[in-house]
UniProtKB/TrEMBL annotation:
CDD domains: RING-Ubox_WDSUB1-like. The lineage of its organism: Eukaryota, Metazoa, Spiralia, Gnathifera, Rotifera. This is U-box domain-containing protein. One of its GO terms (biological process) is protein ubiquitination. GO terms for molecular function: ubiquitin-protein transferase activity.
Length: 351
């Protein structure tokens, strides 16, 4: 198990497009590894995944960054290449390039919004109005939450004038409505305004709220897991089971197609070896449904890369074709079992 969860080994697997189950396990426990470059290497795991062209794998790894506030999509390689540069190396993988370009633009817009550079945000949304109600999977706030946090009614009204753009008032951050976020940020003037102007969105909506409520089974599971975990102060890598190797098209074949030789300069070590401990809170957060916030009983991964309780996301799909975490339209509604989370749940129960 120690080999499976070393940064060097995980990066090696990513480089050769193999053992994604092992990579997913490692990044579930060490999300910060996604952009760390191991000693003697040129690229981090993120760069290799982008180079592979596998958008589904990228989405799952980006979803794990929701708890990593230090994550930066454009983290450079040792030669200052970004994921956008790497995606452009693969003209045969247009879907990956399109995904990276969209993420970069959303990141840019929300970075401007965080800094209250509203004119720059305005230009981006005017160019593509859909950006105004979307966010990358690793960001907490949508545009409207940043406007709310700034207590800026004037800017809210300015954005409303953009042709073909309309704010989505159902958007939530941490399962909280816009008015709640505004009050938490000390923006009571904005909260009062939006509640008065759009009361239908902020009155008690039992149907909408139920989408975020856990089932009785999930509540029981949460209580059970919490009791079991109270017996531990810390969990080790060795508590968990590694995945099975999954080989894809060989890296050397892709390299030959791209005609690119990867350099491997020496640099300071960022390696974080396994055997590290994880707090109870960290593991509990890992086991939560992204929609309800409670421990999963039947964990599944949707097209957005996030893990949900199966029944919760199936209920969501009855009203929406978009991700509840990014508000982007999902490529499909297929749900795959999250074997990593299930393994961790099983290991806790066995303790």
């Amino acid at each position: 198990m120690s080999n499976t969860l070393s940064l060097q080994t995980t990066c090696e697997d990513a480089k050769y497009f193999r053992n994604f189950t092992g990579i997913l396990m490692a990044l579930s426990l060490h999300p910060e590894w996604l952009v760390k470059i191991p000693e003697g290497r040129a690229w981090a795991i993120l760069h290799h995944v982008v180079y592979s062209g596998d958008v589904n794998q990228l989405e799952q790894l980006l979803a794990l960054q929701k708890s990593n506030t230090a994550f930066r999509l454009l983290a450079p390689t040792s030669k200052n290449e970004t994921v956008l540069d790497i995606a452009k190396l693969r003209p045969d993988q247009k879907e990956m390039l399109q995904r990276i370009e969209r993420l970069v633009k959303l990141d840019e817009m929300l970075a401007y919004a965080k800094d209250c550079e509203w004119d720059k945000c305005y230009s981006i949304i005017e160019e593509n109005p859909s950006y105004g109600n979307e966010k990358p999977p690793y960001r907490r706030f949508y545009l409207i939450h940043h406007i709310a946090a700034d207590n800026n009614i004037d800017q809210f009204q300015t954005f409303k004038k953009i042709q073909n753009f309309k704010f989505d008032f159902t958007l939530r951050a941490d399962r909280k409505k816009i008015n709640v976020i505004a009050r938490e940020e000390g923006s009571n003037v904005f909260a009062d305004y939006i509640e008065q102007e759009y009361p239908s969105y902020f009155d008690d909506d039992e149907i909408d709220d139920k989408l975020y409520e856990p089932s009785d089974t999930a509540l029981q599971q949460t209580n059970k897991i919490n009791v079991l975990m109270e017996q531990h102060n810390i969990f080790q890598d060795s508590n968990f089971i590694s995945g099975i190797a999954e080989n894809k098209k060989p890296r050397k074949v892709v390299d030959a197609d791209v005609e690119k030789t990867q350099p491997k300069p020496k640099q300071a070590s960022n390696q974080n070896q396994s055997g590290v401990g994880y707090s109870v809170g960290f593991i509990q957060n890992l086991l939560k449904c992204s929609l309800t916030g409670f421990t999963v009983t039947d964990p599944v991964v949707a097209a957005d890369g996030f893990t949900y309780e199966r029944s919760a996301i199936e209920n969501w799909f009855k009203k929406s074709n978009c991700s509840p975490m990014t508000n982007e339209k999902l490529a499909h509604k297929n749900l795959n079992p999250n074997l990593i989370v299930q393994q961790i749940l099983n290991s806790i129960v066995r303790e």
